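Example record for the data management plan.
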Amino acid sequence: MRIARLVLVFPLALLGADVLTYHNDAGRTGQNLNEVILTPANVAPATFGRLFTLSLDGKVDAEPLYVSGQVVNGQAHNLLIAATENDSIYALDADTGGSALWRVSLAPAGETPSDDRDCGQVTPTIGITGTPVIDLGAGPHGTIYVVSMSKNSSSQYFQRLHALDLSTGAEQFGGPVTIQASYPGTGDNSSAGSVIFDPAQYKARPGLLLLNGMVYIGWSSHCDNRPYTGWLMGYDQNSLAQVSVLNLTPNGNEGAIWQSGAGLAADSLGNIFFLMANGSFDTTLNSSGFPNSGNYGNAFMKISTLRKKLAVADYFTMYNTTAESNADEDLGSGGALILPDMVDGQGRLHRLAVGAGKDANIYIVNRDNMGKFSPTTDNNYQLPATLGGGVWSMPAYFNGSLYYGAAGDYLRSYTFSQARLANIPASQTVQTFAYPGATPSISANGSTNGIVWVVENSSPAVLHAFNASNLANELYNSNMAANSRDHFGTGNKFITPMVANGKVYAGTTSGVGVFGLLPGNVKPAITSVGSASASVGSPFRYQITATNGPTSFSATGLPAGLIFNAASGVIAGTPTAAGTSTVSISAGNTGGTDTVMLSITVTNTRRLRPGSQD
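Corresponding structural encoding:
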């Protein structure tokens, strides 16, 4: 039960947990702990399914994002922000779909999205690949930061950083800015002692990171089509000025940042973490244990952002890192996740991160001392388990458990105890997931009602929901309902499902599938309640409304002289006595009942005759 406020800025149905960045937070945990609608009890084929499919103008490789209660054209909406490889950004009503509230193309006049650059990994076009990031406090209405790729009729390629108004899609802060960079080095595409960023050779595949007023961008290559090196860039979020550039293979080659689209991760101390792909690594180290020529191919990286300057702070790589790079068996296919601080059996605090790649090993590192390189052994914090396949996905964390979906493997859950990860899974799914495996997302209400969501890359794509406490218990998948009721399109490789406010959103090759509780199973939400004033002897009327199809209204505790119409939700009549009454208003259907409290204050009034004195 909740007490209604005097003024509601937005209807209660428009209040919810926002998803403003890849995998929910900068740590990339993938958990939404504010999901109060979806539970293991109601996520089942009889009560849950596809509500509608949003048809967009291209592939949706970026994870959709969600903003609750955003005002667009004078009305509040729960917004779904979706980006396509056709260089389009859409703002859509996340609850009803329909026509876009706004849509903008990020390819300027005379330009088109890039071709696939002779690489089948993002095809047929490359436009917006990495998940954008949203800052609700930037600009007049909030700002979406996004990178686009395009080309002109002369086959000149461009990468641009945009800052879009969340309510209108208009460019902010003088954007967009064209991305250019150079860095001291003699590696691939170098000239006069500097490596040069060639926009044709890269795409912004990892999700963008917003950290301490900066937008950070990592760059992947097109397949292994050289020349390319490993770039990380930082831009001021308010001016879009380039502030810092770092190259991780400046005197070598390759070493891009892929992570299957997973976002650059950050800890609470302002350090950035990610996994580097195959490339040059200097096995000759300096006196501090860092590569002599600054080449970090196939490494788990920690980057300092002190004073907004990017610099390598620490790293870990395997004893056989060179052999792995030569065999294209690198870490860079998976994403890095920041684990919560943990205490071991001796009471010692551990700040950890985790990642895995093509060699199928789960690597846990100590963020304060990652282990660097040894030619004879791995010096990371823990190597707890080997998965049943290589990792082209992102793990998720929830309630002391780590969830991994490797290629050709079961979705597995491993449990932490005293800052150590178990070496065998606590549970796993009955089925396996073909390449590229699956990236899980978690919905829960705090530590309860945990559900693990994944999308199977198939035709048609399949959305799965598993009980987070036992993955062998599949609650739902989109093939369960008869007559293809819940089919939502063709699978699209590295798709991360997004869960917000009772709905699940999954990208496809042509749009976004939207899932939720089916009509009649959604708990109503009363939207028009606040404090009210009335006068003795004067007519009074107050309208109660609710979303999600209430089948019945009720009210108790009304002031004398007022009656309640259960069919229309109207309180009406003429009050007969002064005082303040607390009225309990309820709306119910098969999905549940919502109850709020309405305070009605009745005051005495007297009508004065002309000339009389009070």
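Summary line stored alongside the record: Residues 321-326 form the longest helix (6 residues).
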